[in-house]
Design goal:
Trna Endonuclease, Chain: A, domain 1
Length: 130
């Protein structure tokens, strides 16, 4: 089991990598471009990253006919949902929290690259006590 301290360190790496990608590319590109570049940044930092991870809905032990797709899963621990939109909406935050709750992940990030300053596009989400 990964420690809270390690999760926080990975979280900082994610934020730094997002800053690097945004610094290099700026706003205005497709989400898929930011995704592949962020994966490259994270992997260059020695992190294990999975793209487009299937997340089934399991209810009372039964897998239902609904599945979500997590944009990025870092170290099998942290969810990243990427956007390249004019503004983040509440539904985007619900999306991240849904993924986190369904899979019992404690930390997630919603990152919108279509902003002038990337710090305005990063939302850190916590599921329960962390």
């Amino acid at each position: 089991m990964i420690s809270k301290t390690d999760i926080e360190k990975i979280g900082k790496q994610i934020v730094n990598a997002a800053f690097e990608v945004h610094s290099e590319l700026g706003p205005g590109l497709l989400e898929s471009v930011y995704e592949i570049c962020l994966v490259e940044e994270l992997e260059n930092r020695g992190l294990f990253v999975e793209r487009q991870v299937n997340l089934p809905v399991i209810y009372k032990g039964k897998q239902l006919q609904k599945e979500f797709i997590i944009d990025l899963l870092v170290e099998k621990t942290i969810v990243i949902e990427l956007k390249a939109v004019e503004c983040l909406l509440p539904v985007h935050e619900v999306q991240v929290l849904t993924y986190m709750k369904l899979a019992d992940f404690k930390l997630g990030y919603l990152i919108n690259f279509n902003v002038l300053l990337i710090k305005e596009g990063i939302k850190r989400k916590i599921n329960g006590y962390f």
